[in-house]
Design brief:
alpha/beta; seven-stranded parallel sheet; six-stranded mixed sheet; 33 helices; elongated; nucleotide-binding; Helicase_ATP-bd; helicase activity; P-loop_NTPase
């Protein structure tokens, strides 16, 4: 008989140190659904009712003398010296007398008794699934008792689901004799009650099922998830109930034992400070009479262990720490089956929620080992936030590096170095952030692998999620695909567009650095000194032209570029020829290697090349000027032969682009770009060629340096002054977008101040007051009813088509442009869209001829412009019909000069001109009326057309009619044109800014 059975009081340490009860199994999950089975009953015979019979059985040990016979026997009363008690259950049936009998039924033959005993199929299914579940979670089923299974060994908590369903299915809980009761409770709790007896403490194990006390020594455990209690007086009774949490090892050991022990006064402090803190997390401890006051436990602390290892590796671990008195207990984040009841799960959940907020809901236990930049970012940004959380402590193992993120915008410098291979150069990309130079090799490797951050050797790191790095990755990949990746990244000179992309991306380029070095020499300059007009110039320069020459000579002397942007008709070609005459008569444009005089290269539209030759012959006859209008065999040799002994070579933009390698190979005194708006598109080959040509001086000549937006101006400046605004991207961010959004009106003044030293613009109103007035008038024209109906029909159709396309302008640009062009044609004449409408009168043509007939009759001469040659031909047909002489010029005209001379000599009073073909290179002061048949988006282009006649040499008032069809897209065009004109005037037409002489302050403004 054990100490607990005799009723003797065990020592309190022995009570708490008993090992866990054998046979307790872990919880498994299995389905406990009770279904139905096919009925096998005889028709008309009620099924046999089934029951579950309970019996407390003592297990009989085997001995050498006793090896046969039963392995267990029923317990009718609890007497001292009893052995191992277990609660057995078996299936029984109710006979005709109402008694519960075993009959021939056993757990092993359930399947074979359905028909023989006429068992209820639903109840039979319940028993079959119950025994299957019991056996499924046992490693070995070795019982020699076919009748009984023991609930003590039923390790699946699904048992309670089955027991709960039994009453619904009519299954009775019965004993092996009459008057036995079996009760199924809802909850059983095992607690340790601590009370004070004088100076001692009394520890008593208590058991309560549904708040009703039961003797703990007359109880047993069902797996680790339930309790059963029994007694035999006045009659046998069994009470079963599940526990709210899995039973801990201590609870399993205390059930079925003597229920009390005493802690002597000398051990009270030890119990309360050392044993109680650890024990309370394993089971429920109370003081029912409140005689013992337990210290409030310290809240749990989530301890994050950060282990720093080599190669920037960070390993994280997390535990929950409980501290009570001198006892410190570390527990895993996830409570075990025997800890859940004793831990302060609410406090733990609160701390973990705070941690999850910092970790963006990621679980600490799920964070893998962090390496490289991931470890750096976590250390710098996340660990400090975790340290600051209440209830969290960070323990560091190893040395925590001082990581730091570089947040400033990166600065890129793109350089090129000549290689020993023809037509190739090495490409260098230098990146610096906050004064730190970022090695290119690891940067490129990180970009090519798609990394989002880069860790540097000094423990600083930076984000690669910036547009500049993404674009850099794309460009490097494109350059790498050109085939050279041995000693470095190389790019062919023929890939000029790719170099332009790099240049646009960079904050600095080698060209920009060189340009700023040259500008630095101007800091000591105080202004522009007058330069004598060369005697070889046969014309008498007007005062503003003399001032323009002085400015050009100043730029030439300092090897700087500029933009001569005088209004149309103010003699820009004459001023440029005067500069060439001046430069040619000095020794500054001589080739250092050959002592040969280097010529100037003038690039102009094809139609203007001949004009340069004739103007040079007229104003600077001493210059040797040669034109190249057709590509010739021989390449470099051909250009070298043409340039031999020449002062000026004039060629077209097309030939300059096609023969660029040959032009690049020759040395030039300077590059002059006439009608420089032809190179305003920075992505075009012509622009890239102009930018790359090696020459100490570049001059852009254009009356419209800004046509569509401010990037037109930037494109020209990037050629003549590449360091003034190093990047299109930065220029867009610093100027274009803020000005378009009207965010900072002061930016206009700042922009004008920056460009003033390298841009000269004078308007006719300022420098040529002797010019007669220019009268401009908008003629609003109503479409006739049939024309209006056709236009509105097409408008609705095109509007519906475009509604879903405008969101993606880049993808659908062609379709959108086609629809807009269609509507613009319909505004002129419906037959331009469909010949079926040839019978519909054109209101625009009718209005034109109402005016034109009077103009011709009064002896005036008129220029008629349209963007659409098809409409011009309709006008020509009507002129033919009425016998009025006229001249016609568009892009397909072969003998351009003959057509122009015919009009200038007065043989025809009307000149029909396409806007594109006649927007430059014409001097038609013989006309004094201008008709613009259709408004163009660009006010600068229209202005150039008008200024074919309103220019120096005009003696009569010029009348300009803009013809606009009301209620059509032409009105929208006019509104857009006014917006662009306002931008042009705000930036360019400030006479005080661009026409006066430069001062020292202006020159220093280059460095603002």
């Amino acid at each position: 008989m054990t100490e607990r059975d005799t009723g003797a009081t065990p020592s309190w340490k022995a009570l708490l140190a008993v090992p866990e009860k054998q046979g307790a199994a872990s919880v498994s999950r299995h389905s406990g659904r009770i279904g139905s089975a096919p009925s096998t009953r005889v028709a008309g015979t009620p099924p046999t009712r089934m029951g579950l019979q309970f019996e407390l059985r003592e297990q009989l040990p085997r001995t050498n003398e006793r090896w046969r016979g039963p392995t267990a026997q029923p317990v009718r009363t609890v007497v001292p010296g009893h052995g191992d008690f277990r609660l057995g259950v078996r299936p029984v049936v109710q006979n005709d007398n109402g008694n519960w009998v075993r009959a021939s039924l056993a757990w092993n033959n359930l399947t074979f008794q359905v028909r023989e005993l006429n068992l209820d199929p639903v109840q039979h299914r319940w028993f079959s699934e119950l025994i299957a579940l019991y056996r499924a979670v046992r490693m070995v089923y070795s019982s020699r008792e076919a009748d009984w299974i023991y609930l003590d060994e039923f390790s699946s908590p699904l048992l309670w689901h089955f027991l709960g369903r039994a009453n619904e299915l009519g299954i009775a809980f019965v004993g092996t004799s009459k008057n036995v009761t079996v009760n199924l409770g809802a909850e059983a709790r095992v607690s340790l009650d601590v009370t004070r007896e004088a100076a001692d403490l009394r520890l008593a194990t208590t058991l309560a099922i549904d708040e009703v006390p039961h003797a703990v020594e007359s109880a047993g455990t069902i797996g680790s998830h339930g309790i059963y209690a029994y007694n035999f007086a006045p009659h046998a009774a069994f009470t079963l109930a599940p526990t709210p949490h899995p039973l801990t090892g201590e609870q399993l050991a205390l059930v079925g034992r003597a229920s009390a022990a005493t802690v002597p006064e000398t051990d009270v402090t030890e119990f309360l400070t050392e044993y109680y803190p650890a024990l309370r997390r394993r089971m429920r401890i109370v003081s029912t009479d409140a005689s013992v006051r337990f210290a409030d436990p310290a809240p749990p602390v989530l301890v994050l262990t950060a282990r720093f290892e080599e190669k920037h590796t960070l390993r994280l671990g997390a535990d929950v720490e409980y501290r009570e008195g001198s006892v410190i207990t570390r527990l895993p984040l996830t409570p075990g089956a025997d800890e859940a009841e004793a831990r302060d799960t609410a406090a733990e959940a609160e701390v973990r929620a705070r941690v999850a907020g910092v970790l963006a809901d990621a679980e600490l236990s799920a964070i893998p080992a962090l390496q490289g930049v991931d470890a750096a970012e976590f250390t710098e940004k996340v660990l400090p936030r975790l340290r600051a959380l209440a209830g969290v402590r960070v323990d560091v193992i190893g040395t925590e590096p001082a990581y730091r993120e570089l947040t400033a915008a990166p600065t890129l410098t793109v350089t090129t170095v000549e290689t020993d291979q023809r037509d190739w150069f090495d490409l260098g990309v230098l990146v610096s952030i906050e004064g730190k130079s970022v090695p290119f090799a690891p940067l490129f490797m990180a970009l090519s692998k798609g990394h989002t951050r880069l860790l540097l050797i000094d423990n600083s790191y930076l984000s690669l999620r910036q547009p500049v790095f993404e674009r850099l990755r794309e460009l490097i990949e494109e350059a790498r695909q050109l085939g050279e990746w041995k000693t470095g990244l190389r790019i062919s000179r023929h890939q000029a567009s790719l170099w332009a992309d790099f240049e646009d991306l960079a904050d600095e380029t080698e060209q920009a650095v060189a340009w700023r070095t040259a500008v630095a020499g101007l800091l000591d300059a105080t202004g522009i000194d007058p330069t004598p007009v060369p005697p070889g110039v046969t014309a008498t320069l007007r005062p503003y032209q003399t001032h323009g020459f002085d400015w050009l000579a100043f730029l030439w002397r300092h090897r700087l570029g500029g933009i001569l942007a005088d209004d149309m008709g103010l003699g820009k070609t004459l001023q440029a020829l005067t500069l060439i005459e001046h430069a040619t008569r000095t020794d500054e444009n001589t080739d250092e290697n050959t002592d040969d005089r280097r010529p100037f290269l003038v690039v102009a539209p094809t139609s203007v090349v001949s004009n340069w030759v004739s103007e040079a012959a007229r104003f600077t006859p001493g210059l040797t000027v040669r034109a190249r209008t057709e590509t010739e065999g021989g390449g470099r040799a051909s250009i070298a032969n043409a340039a031999a002994g020449a002062d000026v070579i004039v060629t077209s933009y097309a030939l300059f682009r096609l023969d660029f390698d040959a032009y690049q190979a020759h040395g030039w005194a300077g590059l002059i770009l006439d009608e420089a708006q032809f190179v305003k598109n920075r992505a075009s080959q012509a622009h890239l060629c102009a930018k790359e040509l090696r020459t100490p001086f570049k001059l852009a000549i254009t009356g419209t340096p800004l046509e569509n937006n401010l990037l037109d101006l930037w494109s020209l400046l990037s050629i003549v002054a590449p360091g003034l605004f190093p990047s299109a991207r930065l220029f867009t961010e610093d100027y274009v977008r803020p000005i378009e959004r009207a965010e900072n009106p002061a930016l206009f003044a700042k922009l004008r101040r920056r460009i003033r030293p390298v841009l000269l613009r004078r308007t006719k109103e300022t420098v040529a007051p002797e010019l007669p007035a220019k009268q401009e008038q908008v003629l609003s024209i109503e479409l006739n009813p049939e024309h209006r109906t056709i236009y509105d029909t097409f408008l609705q159709r095109e509007r519906q088509k475009l509604l879903g396309l405008i969101e993606d302008m880049n993808k659908n640009r062609f379709i959108i442009f086609r629809s807009l062009t269609l509507l613009r044609l319909l505004s002129l004449d419906a037959s331009l869209v469909d010949s079926a409408y040839a019978h519909v009168p054109s209101s625009k043509l009718d209005a034109l001829f109402e005016q034109l007939d009077d103009v011709v009759a009064e002896g005036h001469r008129a220029l008629v412009f349209s963007q659409f040659t098809s409409f011009l031909k309709l006008a020509a047909a009507r002129l033919d019909a009425q016998g009025t002489p006229y001249c016609y010029l568009d892009g397909s005209t072969l003998r351009r000069s003959e057509v122009i001379d015919r009009f200038k000599t007065g043989l025809a009073p009307v000149f029909l001109i396409s806007l594109k073909a006649g927007g430059f290179g014409l001097n038609l002061t013989e006309a004094d009326y201008v008709f613009l048949l259709d408004p163009w988006w660009n006010p600068a282009t229209e202005a150039q057309a008008v200024d074919r006649t309103h220019r120096i040499g005009q003696t009569r008032t010029v009348v300009v009619y803009r013809m606009v069809a009301t209620g059509t897209i032409e009105e929208k065009v006019m509104a857009l044109k006014q917006k662009k004109a306002k931008l042009f005037d705000s930036v360019m037409n400030d006479d005080a800014a661009f026409s006066e002489s430069l001062t020292a302050a202006d020159i220093r403004g280059l460095f603002d």
